[in-house]
Amino acid sequence: MNYEFFIAKRIIGSKAYKSSISAPIIKIGIAAIAIGIVVMMIAIATGIGLQQKIRDKVVAFNGHVTITNYDNNNSQESVFPISKNQDFYPDFKSVEGVSHVQGVASKFGVIRTETDFEGVYLKGVGADYNWDYFKEFLIEGKLPDYTQKRNEDVLVSKYLANRLNFKVGDNFQMVFAKDDPEKLPNIITYNVVGIYNSGFQDLDAQYLIGDIRHLQRINRWEKDQVGNFEVFIDDYDELDEKAAEIHQNISSLLDSQSITDRYYSVFEWIKIFDKNIYGIIGIMILVAGINMITALLVLILERTRMIGVLKTLGSSNWSIRKLFLYNASYLILLGLFWGNILGLGLLFAQKYFKLFPLDPTVYYVTEAPVFISFGYILALNVGTLILCLLMLLMPSYIITKISPVKAIRFD
Question: What pLDDT does residue 16 have?
Answer without folding.
Answer: 54
